[in-house]
Amino acid sequence: MRVLVVDDEALVRHALRAFIAGDDRVTLVGEAMDGSEVVEACSRTSPDVVLMDIKMPGVSGVEATRRVLKWKPSCRVVALTTFTTEWRALEVLHAGACGYLVKNSTPDEIIAAIVAAHAGDRVVSPEIQERFVHSAIEAVDERSPEAPTLSDREYQVVELIAKGLSNTEIAEGLHYAEATVKADIRHINHLWGVENRLQIILRANALGIISL
């Protein structure tokens, strides 16, 4: 399996290089230090799996994931990041990533995730899975599925959140100030009694506004 590593931290790239070198099932074919370099690196090295950091200067890992899958839809992207919040995971998974690992994963877990992703499986760190479950329980109350009606713009915001867009990207897409988008999200949270992006998406799915 051919692997491309994308991370702006040299120490992380060095560690991943060592992990991959220690397993004969995987081969490191290239590295990129920024999301803007990803497509060029993919075109040059033809990876099967891309290990993708999320927070990078310039082009984020979420946008870089979209670019990789536009370049080659069959390529598999596994996010490897320090973020442990479920909405961060949901952003990159909605962008098309098939995996989400936190950087405290062991070398064996990282290699296993690469192998599983290449086989077509979805891999998510256990702590993130647990957060998903808790958020789902909190967000979906089967006894009271109805929720207050949103404005047309707020419905648009919900749909764009479900597509994995950041506040900045939503503001650009709707041609509003980012502060307006943040205010809309706060209002949605208040009306629906939810606390974060994942819960917004789960509630919208329960209400039939979107389909997961």
Describe the structure.
This protein has two domains: 2-130, Rossmann fold (3-Layer(aba) Sandwich), CATH 3.40.50; 140-206, Winged helix-like DNA-binding domain superfamily/Winged helix DNA-binding domain (Arc Repressor Mutant, subunit A). 52% of the residues lie in helices and 13% in strands. The chain contains ten helices and six strands; from the N terminus they run βαβαβαβαβαβααααα. A six-stranded parallel sheet has the order 2-1-3-4-5-6, sandwiched between helices.
The major β-sheet equals: 6 strands, parallel
How large, in whole angstroms, is the Cα Rg? 18 Å
Give the name of the CATH superfamily of the largest domain: Response regulator
User: What number is the mean pLDDT?
Assistant: 86
- N-to-C terminal Cα separation, in Å? 30 Å
Number of strands: 6
What's the domain count? 2
- Beta-strand portion reads 5-15%
Pfam families: GerE, Response_reg
InterPro entries: CheY-like_superfamily, NreC/VraR/RcsB-like_REC, Sig_transdc_resp-reg_C-effctor, Sig_transdc_resp-reg_receiver, Tscrpt_reg_LuxR_C, WalR-like
Protein name: DNA-binding response regulator
GO molecular function: DNA binding
